[in-house]
Amino acid sequence: MISPVIFIFSLLLSTSHAAVQDFCVADLEAPESPAGYACKKPAAVTVNDFVFSGLGIPGDTSNIIKAGVTTAFASDFPGVNGLGISLARADIAVGGVIPFHTHPGGSEVLLVVEGTIFAGFVSSANDVYTQTLQKGDIMVFPQGLLHFQINSGSSTAVGFVSFSSATPGLQLLPYALFKNDLPTDIIAATTFLDEDQIMKLKAVLGGTG
């Protein structure tokens, strides 16, 4: 009669060669789908697919929002494809803001490493949650909810952000409303904003109509 120890050991040996797909490095030459990128062939994968150095470089804040965001999503960092994680860096100059936006594909955690950031989000019940964050503080923003970050200090603020998706997506509310060709009267009817103000915002952000 075979002892239980020998039986378990033999079972482990018999399954040790089962095929396991350790990773799915993004093939950026292939089209992206809602499920992510197709996997690069293992023979074409290198260590460089698992390393990303962009977050060590400050983002460009010389723009209308005085903020720069550097992403390490699957499209930038192929090694995270399919792993349910990604990162970003946010640099916000004095007086800068990352306007109301959403990430439809993932939740966000913000870690402040420099400066002071006033941040918040709005729930689907229209409850507002805001907090002034200092160096070392973190705040979570649930998936799909509108949220924002403002530099509320006297020096540049820097935050590192993690996401629960390799492709969290991004939609900035001001751009969604005023940086397209949606007719001004439609925007006015659906937002109750004044048409003159809508036209001014379109002129600033590059919208038409």
Automatic annotation (TrEMBL):
Gene3D superfamilies, A to Z: Jelly Rolls (2.60.120.10)
Chain sites annotated for binding Mn(2+): H101, H103, E108, H147
Sites where the protein binds oxalate: H103, E108
Compartments reported by the entry: Secreted, Extracellular space, Apoplast
InterPro entries the record matches: Cupin_1, Germin, Germin_Mn-BS, RmlC-like_jellyroll, RmlC_Cupin_sf
Residues annotated as domain Cupin type-1: 53-199
Disulphide connectivity of cysteines: C24-C39
SUPFAM superfamilies referenced in this protein's UniProt entry, alphabetically: RmlC-like cupins
Main subcellular localisation: secreted
UniProt keyword annotations, A-Z: Apoplast, Disulfide bond, Glycoprotein, Manganese, Metal-binding, Receptor, Secreted, Signal
Pfam families per UniProt: Cupin_1
Any single GO CC term annotated in Swiss-Prot or TrEMBL for this entry: apoplast
Domain of life: Eukaryota
Parts forming coiled coils: none
GO-annotated molecular function: manganese ion binding
Record's signal peptide: 1-18
Family designation: Belongs to the germin family.
Listed PANTHER family: GERMIN-LIKE PROTEIN SUBFAMILY 3 MEMBER 3
Protein name listed in UniProt: Germin-like protein
Species per Swiss-Prot/TrEMBL record: Carya illinoinensis
